[in-house]
Amino acid sequence: MLSTLPRLIGHRGAKESAPENTLASIREAARQGARWVEVDVMLTRDQRPVLIHDDTLDRTTTGSGAVPLLELADLQTLDAGRWFDAAFVGERVPTLEEAVALVHELGLGLNLEIKPYPGQEEITAEVALNALRPLWPSDRPLLLSSFEVPCLEVAQRLWPEIPRGYLLWDPPSDWASIADRIGAATLNVHQDRQTADSVAEYRATGRPVLAYTVNDAERARTLFGWGVSAVFTDAPGRLAAELAADA
Ligand code: G3P
Ligand code: MG
């Protein structure tokens, strides 16, 4: 599964060039040459898994208020592209199923970040994984990840063979024992908080280290030099070109 992990993973699709977590953004990541994309999944009021990052609709759609207050049918009347650029008017908040169909069509690997509305950790993981599992061919690369340990515990229980990435921002002091307990396959860490020593400490656990979010070629090169395996980037095409040009 992780043997095909590329150096660059499209963050929320290709967030620099298209509205994040939309089908257009996934398409744009593939067009730019990304081989994997990362997207965030949350539940609607009627417990349908959809791609969205924030707890509220305000920033990335024409709606407002908390995501779990709306049923899917109502969410689908909102525009999720207009805020980004007039060229994307008509984009919707995609269901996980729609996103997965496109990921297959484009031949991409997927990092599905389980991003529960606060208090909905277990149900979000259960619903998302139960939706994804019947759609996912066993030979296509898939990494499940979350900042929320209860989500990773659900993934471990329901679908143990799929690798889990433990997302860290301000790691708890016992992050290493948590990573062991949940059987984390990767450590997905904030790029800005890393040093050569911190990356070495993470790597000493034997896990690949992935860093979010890196849009600068110089920083990517530094992180790779410290042993980071892959970076999440809003600009997979631009970053690949800049890294190649400076190589
Ligand atoms: O999964 C990497 C990255 O997406 C985590 O942070 O807030 O962009 O979902 P965020
Ligand atoms: Mg994310």
TrEMBL record:
InterPro entries reported in the protein's UniProt record: GP_PDE_dom (IPR030395), PLC-like_Pdiesterase_TIM-brl (IPR017946)
Record-given protein name: Glycerophosphoryl diester phosphodiesterase
Organism of derivation: Azospirillum melinis
SUPFAM superfamilies cross-referenced by the UniProt entry: PLC-like phosphodiesterases
PROSITE patterns xrefs: GP_PDE, PIPLC_X_DOMAIN
Domain GP-PDE: from-to ranges: 6-243
